[in-house]
Write a structure and sequence with these properties.
By secondary structure, this protein is of the alpha+beta class. The chain folds into two domains: about 5-60 and about 155-220, CofE-like (60s Ribosomal Protein L30, Chain: A, 2-Layer Sandwich); about 65-150, no CATH class. It contains nine helices and nine strands. The protein has helices at about 30-40, 55-60, 75-80, 90-100, 105-120, 125-130, 130-135, 155-170, 195-200, and strands at about 5, 15-20, 50, 65, 135, 150, 170-180, 180-190, 215-220. Strands 1-2-9-3-7-8 form a six-stranded mixed sheet. A three-stranded antiparallel sheet has the order 4-6-5, with helices on both faces. It is globular and about 55 Å long. The protein starts with a strand and ends in an 11-residue tail after the last strand.
Length: about 230
């Protein structure tokens, strides 16, 4: 739990990230209690506490063992052409996207991706299916016993963030960050500047391996108001 100065473009000097280790989060866990115990003596009133969306979703029992999913032929075929690091390279994960978006929309997105590449444009598949894909984490990289579980997005992340914030006297954001320098605030308590939080977490201080640090305290050690919080 050593504070690390954040050195990212657009992030003011004086903002530090403190990864906080917890026990393994389990379905049905009381997040207010778990997070309160973890950040006691670390977070100050007014700090921003970033919580990994996977941990929130697991506490809400929003995950499905991969062996419970039977991929369709469409999922099996399209997953072969996906980036090996992408969630949709797993047929089971892609099947969940198909279930949510419908096969027509997924096929349309796949054709748009092919034609986009021919014209020098990338990412059409994700632009069309953004929300459906963003809500699903594949089964690689999740800690045991969830290493074969596909984790869905957390339910009502704004309300969960606000409940935790009100109980603990801090600001809260539920975030999806990875080692590809991408971070997205899926939910936040009032007055949290989501764009600023995403910039601060672009280096993924949560970690993407077995660090077991689903909480990062974004602490302000500069002068003036906290730069991640709006009036």
């Amino acid at each position: 739990m050593i504070p690390v100065a954040i050195r990212e473009s657009g992030v003011p000097e004086g903002l530090v990230a403190i990864p906080v280790r917890t026990r393994l989060i389990a379905p049905g866990d009381d997040l207010v209690h778990l997070i309160g115990d973890a950040i006691r003596g670390i977070a100050r009133p007014g700090d921003v506490v970033a919580i990994a969306e996977t941990g929130v979703a697991i506490a809400q029992s929003r995950f499905i063992p991969a062996e419970y999913i039977r991929p369709s032929k469409l999922a099996l075929v399209l997953s072969r052409y996906a980036d090996p690091l992408a969630t949709v390279s797993q047929p089971e994960s892609l099947q969940l996207v198909i279930d949510q978006a419908g096969p027509r929309k997924v096929l349309y997105a796949a054709f748009a991706q092919v034609f986009g590449r021919l014209r020098g444009k990338r990412g059409a598949f994700y632009e069309i299916l953004g929300e459906e894909i963003a809500a699903i984490d594949g089964y690689t990289g999740t800690l045991p016993p969830y290493e074969r579980a596909i984790v869905l997005g957390p339910a009502d992340p704004d309300s969960v963030s606000t409940e935790i914030a009100n109980a603990l006297g801090v600001h809260v954001a539920i975030v999806d960050a990875n080692d590809l320098r991408r971070a997205k605030a899926l939910g936040a308590s009032p007055h949290v500047d989501r764009d600023a939080v995403e910039r601060a977490l672009i280096g993924n201080p949560h970690g993407n391996g077995d660090e077991q640090t689903p909480i990062v305290v974004l602490a302000w050690r500069g002068t003036g108001p906290h730069p991640l919080v709006t009036p």
